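Dear colleague,

Thank you for sharing your sequence with our group. We've completed the structure prediction you requested, and as agreed, I am returning the results in plain text so they can be pasted directly into your records. Please verify that the sequence below matches your submission; if there's any discrepancy, let me know and we will rerun it promptly.
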Amino acid sequence: MKCLLLIDLQSGFCPGGNLAVPEGDDVIPVANRLMAKGGYDMIVASQDWHPADHGSFASSHPGRSPFEMGELKGKPQMLWPDHCVEHTDDAALHPALDVTRIDYIQKKGMDREVDSYSAFRDNDRTAHTGLADYLRQRGVTQIDIGGLATDYCVQASAIDAVEMLPGVRVRFIEDLSRGIAPETIAAAEEAMAAAGVTTVTEAEILREARQG
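Please find the predicted structure tokens below.
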């Protein structure tokens, strides 16, 4: 049972969005091709879905600016621009993404008191989204992960997939992902590899699908 997990392919993380990842929209055609021809049994997407007063927003901390380090629940927290606020266009899945092929959408980041990079659990590692149980109950044996951004939500989701779904093969799709900066992208890829995540490309996946 092979699952494609698309991380946060939302307007807010693409050019023109409130927290745009450079070239973030370049991954949308890759996602569409993989959904159509990648041979997956299940396709899941995660979606940042923040309340308007989320504690990770700089606007929730008077006198603070986006991209400063702040604090949330006593722990260090990057303060972000307001982004992916629930029920806004910024939070919507990218309009060019073929959402008709998506079987399940996992919303995250809904608790204003804690940020949630991973599709599987909040950053304090205590509250789970339920995605691991959803995939386990359906007998998923392989998860291929890509999306936005490599050095934040993709990395966290891939490592959590390894930790929370023992025995499941987890792969990072390099060209289905974009990140913030070269040095943090490289660090994220090293961290994923150290956790047991292997790296693949769209071409490799499509070749596997053709070979059956």
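Summary note from our side: The helical segments are 27-37, 131-137, 150-164, 182-194, 202-211.

Kind regards,
the structure core
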